[in-house]
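Pair request: fold both.
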Amino acid sequence: MDLLLKKMEEYAKEYRVPIINENGKRVLVSVIGEKKPKKVLEIGTAIGYSALLIAQHSDPEIKILSLELDEQRAEVASSFLSESSYEDKIEIRQGDAAQILNTLTDFYDVIFIDAAKGQYPYYFKQALSLLAKDGVIIADNVLFRGYVESSEKPPRRYKTIVNRLREYIKMATEHPEFETKIHHDGDGLAVSYHRGKNSEET
């Protein structure tokens, strides 16, 4: 497994595919290892690196549904997963996550968001109806190269992304049903723990 992950890291570096970095990886593995989920929804597969990490540290009965917009990346991810012992536990569904999320009816112990940063607020809203009671929502890259917490204006090309990520953090930290911690490891991970109450109880 370690050899496969190393191979994926080298591929990501060579082809400039963004995957979770070493510091963010430690947080993700820690949260997953503590939660031991049986059902996980991942928004943004890339080459399947995070999906494998999650599978490796989850309950042995883990089932992961991973959504990926890019057809080529979905194919590469499937190829890598075929080299692992988790191939039958991870389903990659290629297509627009915004559309696929509307069709899902299952509840997930963990929802991991690592896709289009400008869509994070929308993904959070969708995740609310798909998260199991006491579930966890994890979002990567929420500090986006330091721009999100900086008082300086971001480059124009990143303005929308930074504003949307600020909106995401505000939604996650102020939502009455969640306790959210922003980890500064890596590029920033927001970990939102559901308090286990229905909205009418809060």
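--- second member of the pair ---
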Amino acid sequence: MSDTPGRLLRLLSLLQTGRERTGTELSQLLGVSPRTVRRDIDRLRELGYPVDATIGALGGYRLAAGTAMPPLLLDDDEAVAIAVGLHTAAHGGVTGIEETSLRALAKLEQVLPARLRRRVRALQDTTVPLYGVLTTGGPAPETDPAVLSVLAAACRHGERLRCSYAARDGAVSRRHTEPHRLVSADQRWYLVAYDLDRDDWRTFRADRVFDPRPTGVRAQARTLPAEDAAAFVTASIVGPRARHRAVVTLRTTLEDAAARLPPGTGVLEADGPDRCLLRTGGDALDWLAYRLALLGVPFEVHEPQALVDHLRTVGTRMLDAAR
């Protein structure tokens, strides 16, 4: 999707400072050509923003003082796309700009028309952040903002939803669900919902959801079998049927741990500048111990106790062999 809406917001922010800025200065700050700046200025004027211009070597642009600002005119996809980007950044998508993103998201809501404000608010109200890095491997998938908007509305209104869903092998099935919450994690989005066809709770990757359609039927009140939606997604990533669930501190940076761990290992969370927490699982203690030993970094197992005991037994055996 074009970054024009985001650029216009940035241009408005620069012009609202009250000082006059030249076209060259604006083009450098925005990373675009002076011709693009002129086109964006014209678009703002077409939308009703009073942008004044002065001619000459020292001339430039600024917003007219004392004029009421009209609502920001974005179409549905543009508004939701910006909200998705800001929400992702506010919850760990980009390090260091979390508070700034939250402020920008609040400002965006204020200038949106009521109809779009409701869609953006639904996305905020129904999304639970999962902090950390998923060891899924590869770049984050592209998720359609329009799909997220429909999923968020179904969660907020407690409405059943039908959609097409693509499995990992590419097979597509039609699903009938009761959406509960959206979970944002590591630039990925998950829908936690009750699958009516399978009579159980499920996690759906939002980028694999197609053609979601609300049915108009109210969802039943159900109890999620987890502390919250983020915990449910964590369990599904670690392995819903894993016999052993482990929580381990790795004494290395989050970035280094993510590079060492194979895809699908679990969820990483920073625990200081040179420590991180790994939530993982497996069916066999031998395999869990082997996986941790091969990471090549110091670690401490918090749970389960059975894994601690197994590591102690294996360590004693190794020391005896070394002697």
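Observation on the second member. The longest strand covers residues 172-185.
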